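In the laboratory, one determines a bound structure by crystallizing the protein with its ligand and collecting diffraction data. In a computational setting the workflow is compressed into a single prediction: the sequence and the ligand go in, and a structural description comes out. We illustrate the idea with fe (ii) ion.
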Amino acid sequence: MATGQLIEMPAEGREAFGGVLRFYDLAKRQEWQVKDLPWGELPPIPEGKGSPERVARRNDMWRSVLTQQLQADMLACDMSSQLLNIAPDHEAKLYYATMVQDESRHTEAWLKLVGEAGGTAERDPHLDNLAHMTLEADTLEEKVFLMQVFYERLIISRFRLIARSARGTVLEDLCHRLATDDGIHHGAGMAYERVLLQAADKKTKQRLVDAANRLLPEFAARRRASEGGSRDRGAARGVAGSRRR
Ligand SMILES: [Fe+2]
Ligand SMILES: [Fe+2]
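The predicted complex, in structure-token form:
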């Protein structure tokens, strides 16, 4: 029967996808809920001290940090759902379904947190550019590379940095969860990219190098902007200055 064939999941010749499936299982085990965060028990973001001007400046700085992470996770929803749609392999589709859920939950958490911190600040245009380069990349290999192999690896150290600057807050707790989740997203991307590149020719591999070279200047510009944009040195120490690590 045709439907029988359609739902059959061939196991033969699929050994290469073992790594992707391990991340699928891990992602399901690691799933958490926004209600698990310590809402109401801890302050949402660090509480400023000093003059009212200084407290207001710190609060603005934190709202800008939260807004950029909210923006990044909204874009991650677009990118992961695109990957879920275009990946031809069922193992990858199973995994990407968990990643779409993760990025949606991250967005939900940032929306709630930014609301508690007083609302959103300005968008970061460099982040939009980074996302468009990935969404408009020509091949699946490039998209997986740019988002999961490259960007999600780099963002983990930023979460750790924000967590260290926001001890005893909901923000710290959220950043630890996101560092773990993006570790899984990165690992799964590495595992899938390895399978995709097994059969890739020289031209496809060269495209990845070219894509990284297009992305890097935008990434560097984003980091410069976030360093220059933080005027409150005390609160911004460590958060904006990821280069110091
Ligand atoms: Fe995320
Ligand atoms: Fe992610």
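The chain has a mean pLDDT of 88. Keep in mind that any predicted model is a hypothesis to be tested, not a measurement.
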